[in-house]
Design brief:
Layout (H helix, E strand, L loop, with lengths): L7 E2 L1 E3 L7 E6 L2 H6 L4 E5 L4 E7 L4 E4 L9 H11 L2 H11 L4 E9 L13 E10 L4 E2 L2 H11 L2 E2 L2 E5 L1 H9 L13 E6 L13 E4 L4
Parallel strand pairs: 1-13, 8-10
Antiparallel strand pairs: 2-3, 4-11, 4-12, 5-6, 5-7, 7-8, 8-9, 12-13
Length: about 210
């Protein structure tokens, strides 16, 4: 199982009782260094992390951890969308025997507190595609192409700008691009995908509730 990497908040938190973000005090020195360059920021959907795994021969599904249970209604949607023979043929055409994981968010009614404000049913929205054998994350245009091929949604790009612009946007308490939900926040990456000195992909989240 390949768990999706945890995304850190953009700023450090106060170590006292408030636990508030210390705005301007970056958690990651690489993010601080890159803060004024262009970042691609997509909407952060409040749901449950799902991985659709193609092992080169068949499809299976995973939650955020091995112990995570996928809600039955969501599992039925995943089976209908990715588990049938035509979907497996599509995986084979696009990836052959190369292992791939489609990472996305299972969301909708009954998933998290306000899931029904996104939509009355359960669905899956794609946000990343990973090739484990190559330790390779696909670019945004490839992710969008895969979403079109499987007729699924992909998290929308909300803005392209600096970290301070992303923070200012989230401070405005925007509405989600989906349904009537409030926007949970943004997930931001440099316009050119980069890794830090430990080889970790540079990604941060900016959550509305932190401001």
């Amino acid at each position: 199982m390949h768990e999706y990497p945890k995304i850190a908040s953009v700023f450090q938190r106060d170590t006292g009782g408030s636990r508030k973000l210390q705005e301007g005090n970056f958690q990651d020195e690489a993010v601080a260094f890159l803060q004024n360059l262009p970042w691609i920021c997509t909407e952060k959907i409040d749901g449950t992390n799902i991985g659709v795994v193609w092992d080169g021969h068949s499809v299976c599904f995973q939650g955020r951890t091995e112990r995570a249970n996928i809600p039955s209604v969501l599992l039925k949607y995943l089976m209908d969308t990715f588990g049938k023979s035509d979907a497996e043929e599509l995986f084979e055409q696009k990836f052959g025997e190369t292992q791939v994981i489609l990472f996305g968010e299972g969301y909708g009614a009954g998933i998290q507190k306000g899931g029904g404000n996104y939509r009355p049913d359960n669905s899956f929205i794609l946000f990343d595609v990973y090739l484990p054998d190559q330790d390779l994350w696909l670019k945004r245009d490839a992710v969008e192409d895969i979403a079109r091929a499987f007729s699924i949604d992909v998290v929308p790009v909300v803005l392209t700008g600096t970290i301070s612009e992303a923070v200012a946007y989230v401070k405005g308490k925007p509405k989600s691009t989906i349904g009537t939900a409030d926007m949970e926040g943004l997930v931001c990456r440099p316009a050119v995908d980069l890794r830090d000195r430990r080889g970790k992909r540079i990604t941060v989240k900016v959550k509305a509730k932190d401001f």
